[in-house]
Design a protein that fits this description.
The complex is a heterodimer of chains A (150) and B (142). Chain A is an alpha+beta fold and 150 residues long. Chain A has helices at 22-31, 42-47, 61-72; strands at residues 18-19, 84-93, 102-115, 118-129, 134-144. Classes of the chains: A alpha+beta (150), B alpha+beta (142).
């Protein structure tokens, strides 16, 4: 069954605030093998003009994926998660994420379409601080393989 | 924000230093923990092959993050990357041996933008296959 296009435009509740820590940024940088001092040293980050250690460009996925999961696991939408693959991902930053940020994400179903027997779901996650300052937009295209047939 | 590359020093066609990133099973385990993505296809060969994959595969987001290092290392400030997007066109199989997979990434300036920004296009290949499509970024230069 193709997904219900009536879900386009639906917005989900904001996620619980996520506190970005220096140690999580360091752990993420270690995992991608990046030894840049901007991820580890407050002094190095401040020399670049940041108030604290800065996050790698794709770090936002930690927060945005929690918001997007509300969509992919919404029983009413009925996405077959066992067939889901990540099709596309993009980030657009209003300002860098740094340690100390308390981030919340709001997911919106931007588009639902079918192509070649697959369901394609575009989810846009608006990241802001818990205080309401816009930080970034993370957009994911989620593909459910073979679910749009019949 | 303090990119170390001057906008005036680049032109369309300027190449970013290419880099290669080895991906081993331990890399995937570390990325799973760091990102919170514990999907079994990234660490369990039995499940990965049972759903038709060639082997355990790298997280698409790990591939994207590694490719992004070509941008951040070039720019000198990670925050200089103000937009970054990719399509995941092919899986990166990571065999359980001492070598794993090798991700090879190149980048090139394709457009000069207003506000001393540039558009960069990346290519990322593993075992000769292009694994990211439309891998593009906007980088704020000095």
């Amino acid at each position: 069954m193709a997904l219900d296009q009536g879900y386009e435009g639906r917005t989900y509740p904001a996620t619980e605030p996520y506190l970005v820590s220096r140690e999580k940024i360091r752990e993420f940088a270690d995992a991608i093998g990046d030894n840049s001092p901007a991820y580890r040293s407050v002094d190095a980050a401040r020399a670049l003009g940041h108030r604290d250690v800065v996050a790698p460009p794709t770090f936002a996925i930690i927060v945005s994926s929690r918001a997007a999961a509300q969509v992919t696991f919404d029983p009413a939408l009925g996405l077959d998660y066992s067939r889901v693959v990540h099709g596309e991902q993009s980030f657009s930053y209003q300002r860098p994420i740094t340690a100390g940020d308390r981030l919340v994400a709001v997911a919106t179903v931007e588009k639902i379409r079918s192509a070649a027997g697959n369901d394609l779901l575009t989810v846009s996650c608006a990241l802001s601080t818990a205080e309401g300052e816009p930080v970034a937009t993370a957009r994911s295209v989620i593909v459910a393989r073979g679910t749009a047939k019949d | 924000m303090t990119a170390t590359v001057l906008f005036d020093s680049v032109q369309v066609g300027t190449e970013l230093p290419a880099q290669s990133f080895p991906l081993q099973r331990v890399t995937l385990v570390m990325y799973a923990g760091a990102s919170g993505d514990f999907n079994v296809i990234h660490w369990n060969q039995r499940v990965a092959t049972s759903v038709g994959l060639p082997d355990v595969i790298a997280h698409g987001m790990l591939t994207m993050a590694e490719a992004g290092r070509v941008l951040t290392d070039w720019a000198g400030d990670p925050a200089a990357v103000v937009e970054y997007g990719v399509r995941f066109t092919r899986v990166v199989a990571v065999p359980d041996d001492d070598t794993g997979a090798l991700l090879e990434v190149t980048g090139k300036v394709t457009e000069l933008l207003d506000g001393r920004k540039v558009r960069v296009e990346l290519t990322a290949t593993a075992a000769g296959d292009k694994v990211l499509g439309q891998a593009r970024a906007v980088v704020q230069l000095a």
